[in-house]
């Protein structure tokens, strides 16, 4: 290491900790192995706890294996004080590494320097406080340095976002090409404020000769849109819930004359409600602080935030960015008037917002059936909308269905009715937001009087979001950020890296985020957009089906697992999925994805809105009549989804950005507590990695400002001399070293100032060459004459040699044809035998595999039958238990019925007995005077005997009047007693009749219950039969599927066997070509070793190269015509010898099949030796008199025939005439 100050990795929240090297421990076994080096360091950080091992003064042994290149990252230290080096531009860091970049940015942030340069990229830390760095003096300094006087030698001002706006303005004025500035970063990193700072600076660069009222309108449009499109989230108090691309329009003099704004994907769901700790859109809270006259017009008189379900009381009274809602309302009202929204237009606009707020208070309850009814007061809402209350009540509780030419009303459930009202409120607010944007564009857009205008686009779009629960809106926002990250990667990294890598320019290993996989997962052919749109079109599309299809259609072919960007976790429920974005993994909850993407608005409420006041009516114009040439219904539905619309908008945005010269500002959120001077190392380094800052610095330092094609360099600077024919040698000879340039495959890259030096040297050398032109011209004239005479002599010699060799060639040609036919015949016979054996082996193997698979199938079938029997038994047992329980219940009911019937009979019998007793009593009543009296109660002690005695006494003593009087008195008392008994018996009879009626009623109810139980039993029996029938159908389907699977397995086995045979054939062909190449190499080496004639050696090498290239490029061999190769006339004898040698090689002697198979290569080498001896004068007396083979059976090379690598039938060549000599290798078909 060059110094002792290093960085050491540490767990969060430190990430990297500065330290000083104390010593290095290297074992004896690893002196030459840097992988086993360990270093003892002492930490310098005092930000940790004293008990932490990373506290200042504590020591630790560090293993180098855990660090890049097995080296600890070095610190950037000042030479005098040994303090950390703090620079304005990261490119200037002496030691470039991740901890150095983090340290430099953190120290600048703590010194209240939020901006740092990274080449042309500006890194902006959110300071979370107002800083005095946006004054007119700072603007003037940046304008002077970067716009009006760029060649000034004065030192540049400190890094600032004004640098980006100044450069964009300067490039627009000089190149007349549109510019764009992309401000990107996470939510809460300060993107919106940065865009406002840029807009303010661009509007003040050139104010023109007169007051420009458009500038004030453009600047006022920012807080106006913030009121309607921004809200408080858990991460940011003023988070933009929509995307905005503002195109500032400048005339030819550079004066800001207008602007045009496009907005993207307003988060409509925030209208109806937000999570804990958040607020809805700012305007809802601002208007509650408005004047009473305004509130009366909106129907808000006497109401607060707690009276509206869309607003709530939690967010009322909060201070956002140092201002109350009442102060912001004043600014918003002034901005509305400034852009031309006032008077009746403003009243209707505010009245529409009031309608949206009141729509949230509409509540529903069930009407006792399938429909619903309004449980809240609709009077104020109907009055605001200027519609009848009853009509409004009907529209929100019923839905109109149209079938052909008929239409009918369908009642809505309370939930459906509430969802319909919420959807209408969200759409109405979104329409008003777009109307507001259109009014701002009308007020700020440049007119035709300004002529052609240039554009500087400022993109302020929602940052990357990852919450505890991420919905459909977060997926759309993060997809947009993925597209912007891809453009940043292409612009800053990929173009430079790909060019340098394709040219072979050495660069350090650069790792940068490539999010193509994520974009393909979302917008690809089988991506999330297509799947979700399909679910919206399907009649029974659901969120769960969307998630399952997303996983099923995005799996790798290797392991059928999740792709690297689509994460699947067993702990996820059926509506959860996770995507690995460039900024980290995000888990999404797909609840209501289909509903939010379809974005269905109740038709009845839309029709009702067209009868309201103009501001609402104009928001929902009548739909155009469908044309006869319209596309299919499914395509129109897909095109109308939220995601499809946003995809089209995003595509148009990326197209517009591609037409501009783009500059970047990367906003960084230093901490989540929103505190100044505090840096969270973990989140900051993650944002830096996602932004690609390290890779951007590395590429910028390795850049070359000038480049030329190699041919152009050779053409321009060869005149400078030096070098050995290479561009590198030429430039080294001229420049003296390699430090000033790099040579790629097609271009030469020069560092600053090198190309200018070469141009000066070239002009000097061209002047020296001017004096030699005349001599060269005269030499050329004379040389031309000599070449004409030489070409005539060569032509005459060639003609004579051609005639002499023609006759020799004819005889050799006829002999070679006979040899080729014999060789091809033998090779074909061997190939036929091989194919027959292979076919027989294939049949045997097929029979064996069939028997083996049949046996396995039988075993599997037996096991399946056993499993099915067991399963049926289990199923029937369950059914039997249910039936047994039902039978027991039925018997119990029958026993109860019998007992009740018996009790009823007894009661009936008692009733009849009572009636009989009553009748008997009635019959006895007239005879009471003649019959004996019944016994008296105990309280009257008179019995029947006494009465009889009295009657006897009365008869016996009839003359006694006193006795008669007593008898009559007693008779009267007896009659009274009998009457009471009769009344008592009648009362008991009535009671018995009432009890009888009650028992009859109980009996009737028991009979009804018995009938209902019988019907339930019959229904259950029918359901059981249906289940049995379905089970049989499923068994049939399973058997058919098994049959199809067996057929597929057999087909796969056949295909594998066929592939094996083709592979063997191709391998044999390759062996043949390799053997042929080796033989040609032997010929070339032999000629070089034994020949002293350099010209002959060159000629042989040329022939060998032509043979090899022709053979290798052709599909079945090659043809060589030696006569077409130029040879000097004075080498006639050597050339004839060479022709004879190649003739011997190409025309071997015939031999038997067995010898040919065993000694093919040896025979061919013998022919080669014989030919070479004829060339070098060795004679032919020592050659082997025995005939040599024509080649190897498999993989050999036969010159002059058609065989080779795989055997088979060759083709004979009839080409050539005169002295042409052909060499024909042959291959298997």
Tell me what you see in this structure:
The chain is of the alpha+beta class and 1229 residues long. A seven-stranded mixed sheet has the order 5-6-20-7-16-10-11, with helices on both faces. The chain has a four-stranded antiparallel sheet with strand order 1-2-3-4, with no helix packed on it. A three-stranded antiparallel sheet has the order 17-18-19, covered by helices on one side. Helix 3 (161-175) packs across helix 4, helix 10 (343-359) packs antiparallel against helix 13 (414-444) and helix 14 runs parallel beside helix 22 (642-658). The longest helix is centred in the last third of the chain and has 152 residues, at 773-924. Residues 650-672 are annotated as: Actin-binding.
